[in-house]
From TrEMBL:
Cellular component aspect of the GO annotation: peroxisome
Family: In the C-terminal section; belongs to the 3-hydroxyacyl-CoA dehydrogenase family. Belongs to the enoyl-CoA hydratase/isomerase family.
Biological processes per GO annotation: fatty acid beta-oxidation
Entry keyword set: Isomerase, Lyase, Multifunctional enzyme
Protein name: Peroxisomal bifunctional enzyme
Provenance organism: Pterocles burchelli
Reactions catalysed: (3E,5Z)-tetradecadienoyl-CoA = (2E,5Z)-tetradecadienoyl-CoA; (3S)-hydroxydecanoyl-CoA = (2E)-decenoyl-CoA + H2O; (2S,3S)-3-hydroxy-2-methylbutanoyl-CoA = (2E)-2-methylbut-2-enoyl-CoA + H2O; a (3S)-3-hydroxyacyl-CoA + NAD(+) = a 3-oxoacyl-CoA + NADH + H(+)
GO terms for MF: (3S)-3-hydroxyacyl-CoA dehydrogenase (NAD+) activity; delta(3)-delta(2)-enoyl-CoA isomerase activity; enoyl-CoA hydratase activity
Length: 164
């Protein structure tokens, strides 16, 4: 939603500007990272106001390490947010994907550019064109995530952030 996008942007800008903040962790609520955009809201978003790409670029350009703590699902725009992060940690039961193609859309948050850079063109094309959801263990093998954990992903992300 526009509210979530605005909160993410505001939080990133505040964290980047605060010298006491050494790293940024992005996580979801209630055991889910993000299921992506609510397609019901597409018609109400103004052209620039609801654009995910600039926010993902803001994440990527942060001078501070940004770690995605993926629990549950990271689908569509949720995966695109994670792709903008410098590091990604996933819970062993997490699933990721870009399912937009299954409803006739292309991923719109620059995931079609970032995913091939991260995991290579053949694997990325499979995920982008089929819309299939991949489990965390496969994501690790592909290089989509840096670590898979069985415990709390936010705590694991904090440990990783402290290391880097």
């Amino acid at each position: 939603s526009l509210t979530v996008l605005q909160a993410l942007e505001d939080g990133l800008k505040r964290a980047d500007a605060d010298p006491s903040v050494k790293a940024i962790i992005i996580c979801g609520e209630n055991g889910k990272f993000s299921a992506g955009a609510d397609i019901q809201g597409f018609h109400s978003l103004k052209r620039q106001d609801g654009a995910l790409g600039p926010i993902v670029s803001l994440i990527e350009s942060s001078e501070k390490p940004v770690v995605a703590a993926i629990e549950g699902i990271a689908l569509g725009g949720g995966l695109e947010v994670a792709l903008g992060c410098h590091y990604r940690i996933a819970h062993v039961k997490a699933w990721m994907g870009l399912p937009e193609v299954t409803i006739g859309l292309l991923p719109g948050g620059e995931g079609t550019q970032r995913l091939p850079r991260l995991i290579g063109v053949p694997a990325a094309l499979d995920i982008i064109t089929t819309g299939r959801h991949i489990p965390a263990t496969e994501a690790l093998k592909l290089g989509l995530v840096d670590e898979v954990v069985e415990q709390n992903t936010a705590e694991a992300a904090i440990r990783l952030a402290n290391k880097v």
